[in-house]
Amino acid sequence: MNRTPSISSVTTVAADEDKGGITQNGATKHDFDYSSKEMGTREEDGKGAEANIMLQTADQPQEMDLEKAQDQPKAPTPGMMDPSSFPDGGFEAWLVVFGGFCCLFVSFGWINCIGVFQDYYQTGPLSNFSPSTVAWIPSLQTFMMFLGGPIFGKVYDNYGPRYLLLGGTFFHVFGLMMTSISTKYYQFILAQGICSPIGASAVFYPAMSTVSTWFFRRRALAFGIMASGSSLGGVIFPILVTRLIPEIGFPWTMRVAAFLILGLLVIANLIVKSRLPPAPKPLVLKEFITPLAEPPYALVVGASFLFFFGIFLPFNYIILQAQANGMSSYLSSYLLAILNAASVFGRTIPGYLADKYGRFNIMIITSYFSGIIVLALWLPSASNVPIILFAALFGFSSGAFVSMAPALIAQISDIRQIGVRTGTMFAIISFAALCGNPIGGALVAGQNGGFSHLQIFSGMMMIGGSTVFVLARWKLAGLKLLTKV
User: Fold this and answer.
1) C-beta separation of 471 from 301 below 8 A
2) H or E element, residue 5
């Protein structure tokens, strides 16, 4: 009888490890096998090895009883792919996490301080340009960093992280050095908006993909620890930039930041490595599109796309909104540091809880919370205390998205294609990041300097994205609210 894989069985129940091959993360030990197109057809050797609890026939019920599942023989899996082969810890694995921490410190951590540059350019060298026009610089930073995902993901899958890290180090540092001597709008666009984030992208993706190869049951926690590097970078870089510009000027401030980034990337180049050997394959454009035919993957990407429309608006405009409501320039310069400091906990604690209670479950909770506090707290805030409180709460809740989104993709993917699949997701959502800030700037200009329309747009986009995450969870596990997914 022909058997076809059931996507809905990928992440359906939580049980102890010794029950029928069910792992602690709520998936079978072959959750990476949920697509037969990705793993290839199994050889029929007449020994019944093809029978698997993840496979179901047309005349079988959608959900198999766990006790019956224990009696089902499991299909053989490649040694490097078997969940038991993932170290899930040890000195070498955690050293890779530290290297990833450094990579995200200098890539996403740098992107997290875009609000500082929006404020500086708008009141300084580019004061004759509209907020919407200035916003294209930080928006291009975010867009270019994520757009390279499919290309860098494919390079990673074929050749590993080494060449990407070396090239990324050069372009990121070179772009910031060129920014230090820029004076014209187009120069800032080329140096800070294009060159530097291309390098940051080449650093960001191998770090995210490499950690996936070392962890399985504790993957969300490892991602959270690594992603906290971007939070720490988001604390240090805004303070460094705002404090040094008055002391040593903008050019040398950018050079100091570039040298700091260079030092951390030297460390990352030495210790970041994949557990799996590279497997060069020819470039096939179809492999970037095929995952979108899988409903869970497409829904996760769609949810992330909507969420990205709103998530960067507080980062980019909270300083200007606070100053418009009477906050001093000195105090407002610390808002991004407060936001990113809180996200250190937002990227580690939810990761730990996700491995225990389900990654989709925790993502839905934190995503909804992000949208709600934008509408319920940031929108009506008109004094220092609620704005500072919002910065801390939003930093915590939004921080979970950065660490959890790649973990969701890894949960529903073949780990050997993690580079392409993660890169495709980030490339698609990069268009939301590109358009989000200019749309926000246009909303502010259209309201004659008011921020309520921007805040409503931000909150509703995040709530919309959270709702699509719910649909992705429903596709995987149905309406069972207490199921670990």
Assistant:
1) no
2) strand 4-5
